[in-house]
Amino acid sequence: MRIEQTEKRKRASGRTSSRIGRERDATRASGEPETASRGRSASQAQSEPAASRIPAGVSRRSFVQAAGGLGALAGVAGLASCAPRAVRAPKASGAAGADPFEGAEEFFAACPPECQHHNLKAQVVDGKVVRVTCGAANESRPCMMGMSRVEWLSTDQRLTTPLKRAGEKGAGSWEPISWDEALDLVADKLRDAIDRVGNAGIVCDSHAGNFNAIAGAVGPAFIARIGGATTLTGSLCCAAVAGATIPMFGKRFYDTRNTIADAECILVWGNNPAVTMNGYFGRFEQAMERGAAMYVIDPVHSETASKATEWVPIKPTTDTALALGMLKVIVSENLHDQGFLKAHSTAPCLVGADGALELIDPSDKGSYAVIDARTGQRVRHDAEGVDPLLSAGEANRADGARTVFDLIVQACDEWSPAAVEAETGVPAATVERLARAFASTKRGMIIQNMGGFMRTSYGTYAVAAQNNLAVFTGNIGAAGNGVCDAGGINNHVKLSPLFDNPAVSPDLPKIPRVRFARRVLEDDPNPIEVFISSRESPMTQFPNTGLVKEALKKIPFVVVIDSLMTSTALYADLVLPSATVFETEDLLCNARSHLVQLSQKAVDPPGEAHDDLWIFTQLAKRMGVGDDFDHDAEFFARKALEGTGIAYEQLAEEHAIDAYPPDFVPYASGAFPTASGKAELYQAPWLKKGLEAVPAYHRAAETRGGTAGLDDAYPLAAVQRKLNRSVHSTFGILSSICSATRDHACVMINSQDAAERGIGDGDRAVVYNDRGEHRARAIVTDQIMSGVVCVENGWWEQQGGSSSYVTNDAVGHLSGEHCCNETLVNVRKEA
Ligand SMILES: Nc1nc2c(c(=O)[nH]1)N[C@H]1C(S)=C(S)[C@@H](COP(=O)(O)OP(=O)(O)OC[C@H]3O[C@@H](n4cnc5c(=O)[nH]c(N)nc54)[C@H](O)[C@@H]3O)O[C@H]1N2
Ligand SMILES: Nc1nc2c(c(=O)[nH]1)N[C@H]1C(S)=C(S)[C@@H](COP(=O)(O)OP(=O)(O)OC[C@H]3O[C@@H](n4cnc5c(=O)[nH]c(N)nc54)[C@H](O)[C@@H]3O)O[C@H]1N2
Ligand code: SF4
Ligand SMILES: [Mo]
Question: Per the entry, which co-factors are needed (predicted)?
Fold first, then answer.
């Protein structure tokens, strides 16, 4: 039988019984303002009025009708109610000015995909969420996606019962089955896989779909208890910054968010904070109002570029060459901060002939050698009163000694401004101007934000070269400067482990996530019999969708746990219906946000849907390992909060606490949490990968003039961008979002490239290469470099398919980087 989208779902009205909810209700102060803005910044980033999000030519009335249904109507009301005051919320009913939902029960929850984790408030009438608006402690209002959750909670598209595949994989024929049947089936398949292939025959994966603590812990806890599985390694997102910044600076996920407004020179490097950090983009605007210059280095004239001092278009994948060129200008003009480099980095440390840093005491890994300028002797870098030579060349030494500084300068040598221009497309004069602008201030900030340049095969070097720029100019460790990673409260508040997981065999295979499909198809290193996927959408987000589809078809038993029939669920053997925000209790304290939040359950999930805690608990019981699971969410939330200094009761009362130290500056005063206490600019482990220990530029393979040799067939470089209508694939299918924005993919193409192909603005186009095709409407514009097209992240199969149909599934060289922004394509007008 084929389940129609109009399938009647069992309503779960009036069944809410959240403990947290009841507590909240009892303690709720009356008349709490809708926006409890307790953030420390005065900035209000969400400046776009909700009304302006309605597409041109669509009246608000027809938009509301198109959105349809009470839930959607309330969604629109919610959209407007969090917009700036000037925009009046259309009323669901009643007299003008009266709030139709006044007195409704209120619940609070975090918006948990890999985004900014706004706190949301749901109002519940008769057991239904009728409106989602701004919750507690937000710096800015949530975006329309957060508020569209009112539709997500009530849409007929929700999965309400386990579904077993009834026809060919991908054909969309499903048989509803009971939870008992579904769970027995999964347990049988797991046992069978373990019997025949061993635990290596199982993959249980998730990625960035939900940053909540409990949802995130249960899958791994379950797998550990059944003896482990094959794991997928390497973030699709930020493998590059993990690979560069952790060894160089000792730690990552730091952000400079609290002092952005103090910056004087901001390099927004290959990312688009006006969209992807919209929650605090006001801080960038504040900096500019105070006179800061903001440069956006991006092949696309993005939303951020349109607000910047200058757009610096750059050929994709060439960022390291630009950074090295800037460094060359800085050093040759003596603009580098020698004092900072000597005191707070390994730049003066000596590199031995064997490629390792020289040690004064071989038994002490931190005893790096430097040459003391006064004595000419080798001493420890941290010896009392030492004045290290930055360059060994200064001493004209006959022993061929080289410092890290020397090697870095050498790696920049070929990157004269003219050479940079030839490789990157950034004019030589701009390279010089950027270098001088950044080096002439101590309030220079680089925004990385897990940007697009990282998702290329040498992305780690691009991050490392940018890190070097910050260290060389002394632009790190003080307010208004630094390198802005996506940040996270989990650097300051450490949750206690929710489960005490048993160790599993270290011999179980690890597969780079970007190669998952290929490795499955090649049975490398062994056949995968069972794949359980939750909190991710491989069919839209893993590279090379065509192969992912084949892999999902090949794996004998694919289980997808999600709340909607996602692009990935379409190719499952069994789909398990999960709960979503406001249907489950959870705790959030993670990357990307400064808030610690407790999420309340406001309503029951529709039909027989259950949260991940319940699902994995039932599976664990069936596999005979359920003992540690059988607790409610409150038990786990309390356990996680142990040792954080935050009491469960306080969080239940306040919902969200901004626990980020207000004056926190990453690596303050040049103290780095590395072995040496300094920025480690030399990474010997990179030599083992056959590459340089300091960032060097290598032309990416799948680029114009690269070794892939695809220029003739596929002369256009395709980059990806994230949209304000979806977080990856999340939200993108909801009708309120589709009507407020659009329901089809677009591709930005330069006018000249479009003209050569007979493509006009608004034409249907096909972006293609040997991997596959991605259909999108053309946006013909000069706001993108010629030779580059920009496709969009997150479109569903049901909407024409993901841009990942064409993306490169190569594994990055240093950190297993995802290479989606290193992709060559061509574009044709759709016949
Ligand atoms: N609304 C919304 N917000 C989000 C997300 C979302 O999906 N939607 N996702 C969240 C997540 S997980 C992440 S990682 C962040 C990402 O945040 P961003 O990094 O800001 O997002 P992207 O859109 O991936 O990339 C931004 C830019 O990188 C450029 N780019 C691509 N390749 C290159 C290159 O080689 N060099 C240079 N210089 N530029 C390049 C693209 O043209 C694009 O404009 O956003 C987070 N916030
Ligand atoms: N082509 C292309 N590919 C990309 C990128 C790109 O820019 N372009 N960006 C990359 C980046 S930066 C990232 S971070 C990744 C993100 O890729 P993914 O992590 O795969 O993110 P989503 O597409 O948002 O998928 C999240 C899914 O989790 C589900 N979900 C949410 N909450 C829960 C829950 O509590 N339980 C369960 N079971 N499911 C839940 C959502 O409904 C959704 O279907 O994509 C990467 N891939
Ligand atoms: S989708 Fe992102 S920006 Fe929008 S409300 Fe949720 S966390 Fe905030
Ligand atoms: Mo990401």
Answer: Mo-bis(molybdopterin guanine dinucleotide)
Is the Cβ atom of 215 under 6 angstroms away from ligand 2? yes
Nearest CA to ligand 3 atom 6: 146
Domain boundaries, the chain: 1-58+699-831, 258-487+670-689
Backbone angles phi, psi at 444, to 5 degrees: -105, 130
One-letter amino acid for residue 221 of the chain: A
- Choose the CATH number for 258-487+670-689 among 3.30.70.250, 3.30.450.30, 3.90.180.10, 3.40.228.10: 3.40.228.10
Q: Which residues face 149 on adjacent strands?
A: none
pLDDT at site 476: 98
Å from CA of 782 to ligand 1 middle: 20
Phi, psi of 435 (to 5 degrees): -60, -45
Whether cis (ω within 30° of 0) applies to the bond prior to 525 is yes
Q: How many residues does the chain have?
A: 831
> For residues 582 and 129, is the Cβ–Cβ distance under 8 A?
yes
**Which ligand number lies closest to the CA of residue 276?**
1
Q: Which of 562, 583, 584 to mutate to test the pocket of ligand 2 (most atoms within 8 A of CB)?
A: 562
* Nearest ligand 2 atom, CA 803: 1
Is any ligand 1 atom within 6 A of the Cβ of residue 448? no
Q: Match domain 1-58+699-831 to its CATH number in 1.10.530.10, 1.20.120.530, 2.40.40.20, 2.60.40.10.
A: 2.40.40.20
At 285-340, the pLDDT tens digits run 999 999 999 999 999 999 999 999 999 999 999 999 999 999 999 999 999 999 99
Output the CA 237–ligand 4 centroid distance in Å: 4
Low-confidence winner among 26-40, 406-420, 448-462 (lowest mean pLDDT): 26-40
Cα distance between the two ends of the chain: 35
- Please compute the mean of the pLDDT values over residues 378-395 and round it to a whole number: 92
Q: By C-alpha distance, which of 34, 136, 97, 162 is closest to 560?
A: 162
Cα 356 to chain centroid, rounded: 34
- Least confident piece of the model among 83-97, 273-287, 638-652: 83-97
User: Mean pLDDT, to the nearest integer, of 196-214?
Assistant: 98
CB atoms within 10 A of CB 359: 17
* Dist. CA 449–CA 115, nearest whole Å: 11
Burial class (CB in 10 A: 0-12, 13-18, 19+), 364: exposed
* Residue 96's pLDDT band (cuts 50, 70, 90): low
| Lining residues, ligand 3, CB within 6 Å | 111, 115-118, 142-143, 145-146, 278-279, 727
Q: Residue 3 pLDDT more than 60?
A: no
